[in-house]
Specification:
Length: about 400
């Protein structure tokens, strides 16, 4: 901005000068020649000294300015070969329009420890919409027992898993890879076994399908549970000011899921240097990798918020988990109407970042799903489901 304003002011000055003092004396053709000369010099200068701010980039250059959008780290230093390769691939994926499926589906990716207690509730949620979703289950501890036909046979197989040993981001990447095999899957939703739906299927389907953004949570927490987890060993690709935080419960459009498949550079940084109990820090890659990656490569393409509600207001290590006595129609209805998104930080002032939720630039309820619910809430949730999910 500063650069442009400076230029504008300078151009104005020149115009004013030529207007007041010289125009009367100069013959018209000479005045035009001067102006044209000035414009040519201006353009040559812009060509020789490429613009280094995003506004200047958009004004002067026909090239892609995406990389200028966010932390100036890209503009400030030369990229390594690997980084260049990575950016070329990612940029190409982001520019390619998604394949038009005649039968677009949402892939629901369930990350569970064992049996999914809320299967009967999800069964109710899915019923009647059979051609518009697919289910994938990754279980990390014990083999689940399925009761709903939508879940039977949907466990993902593959390489042998050492239970509880594979890092969360690897599980997420596995689930994404499996679900990307089906070209009809256009949106990808990560859910846990303590998640429940807050709206009916049609509402969720339209909310996700009719927008261009991925709902990936992303904010800056300057406290010990935010940038305090950052390791200098992630430099230079991930500088401290690029390090973001966010809940792992995402929804992602297909292009973004492909980016996650294609990215090896940032993934490796986080896998190697964002681990619990490392260099005196407890870093959890699943809370930092995706927010940081997408904030770097496509900041305008993510909503910076999650569509999965969770209650951190108690300020404990874990979010509040709801019990059967908490579940009333009014409580559930309240959750479906929340229009403010709240982030609790761990900085000294325990800053709270909040803002309205927007969907395609319109104010809309923030949440499609909610966690964490104890299995004992199932019965009450089933009773109220048809009522609280109607808007
Ligand atoms: C999504 O992006 C395309 C292309 O940029 C645009 O034409 C379309 O209107 C967008 N859709 C929504 C729902 O924002
Ligand atoms: C998300 O945050 C980034 C800055 O961190 C901003 O550039 C982007 O516009 C935000 N996205 C939306 C949808 O507001
Ligand atoms: C629901 O929201 C209303 C208005 O914000 C509040 O007064 C009420 O206590 C809430 N009820 C429950 C059960 O959370
Ligand atoms: C749901 O709503 C219907 C009609 O408004 C009502 O008759 C019924 O009692 C409600 N069920 C529950 C569990 O609140």
């Amino acid at each position: 901005m500063k650069v442009t304003r400076g230029w504008q002011r300078r151009i104005k000055d020149i115009f004013l000068m030529s207007g007041s003092r010289q125009r009367s004396r100069l013959k018209r053709p000479l005045w035009i020649i001067l102006l044209v000369t000035f414009v040519i010099i201006f353009l040559i200068t812009a060509f020789i000294y490429p613009p280094t701010t995003s506004t200047a980039c958009y004004i002067f250059s026909s090239r892609d300015c995406t990389l200028f959008n966010q932390p100036s780290v890209f503009a400030a230093r030369e990229l390594s070969d690997e980084e260049t390769r990575s950016h070329v691939v990612i940029r190409e994926i982001l520019k390619t329009p998604p394949i038009q499926s005649t039968n677009p589906k949402i892939a629901f990716l369930f990350l569970t420890t064992g049996t999914l207690h809320f299967e009967p509730l999800w069964d109710k949620f899915f019923r009647g919409h059979e051609d518009r979703f697919s289910v994938y289950v990754h279980t990390s501890r014990e083999k689940p027992v399925h009761t709903s036909p939508y879940f039977i046979g949907r466990d993902i197989h593959g390489e042998t898993v050492v239970w509880g040993k594979i890092p969360m981001i690897d599980i997420e990447r596995r689930l994404l890879a499996q679900s990307l095999l089906d070209p009809d899957n256009q949106q990808f939703v990560l859910l846990s076994d303590s998640c429940v739906p807050l709206h009916n299927f049609d509402y969720v389907y339209n909310y996700l399908m009719l927008t261009n953004v991925s709902f990936i949570d992303c904010f800056v927490d300057h406290g010990p549970h935010g940038t305090g987890r950052y390791s200098e060993r992630m430099r230079p690709e991930v500088e401290k000011n690029a390090f973001q935080k966010g809940s792992q419960w995402f929804t992602m459009k297909r292009q973004h899921a492909l980016v996650v498949m294609a990215d090896n550079l940032y993934y490796r940084k986080f896998k190697n240097y964002c681990k619990p109990n490392m260099d005196g820090r407890n870093c959890y890659a699943d809370e930092h990798y995706l927010p940081t990656l997408f904030n770097l490569i496509d900041p305008g393409g993510i909503a910076n918020r999650s569509v999965t509600y969770v209650d951190w207001s108690e300020g404990k290590w874990h979010p509040r988990a709801f019990r059967a006595q908490d579940i009333t129609f009014e409580f559930l209805k309240n959750l479906t109407f929340i229009e403010e998104d709240i982030h609790f930080t761990s900085d000294r002032k325990k800053r709270i970042i909040s803002g309205s939720c927007f969907w395609n630039s319109m104010k809309r309820p923030c949440y499609l799903f909610a966690r964490k619910f104890y299995p004992e809430t199932l019965h009450k949730l089933m009773t109220h489901f048809s009522n609280y999910t109607t808007i």
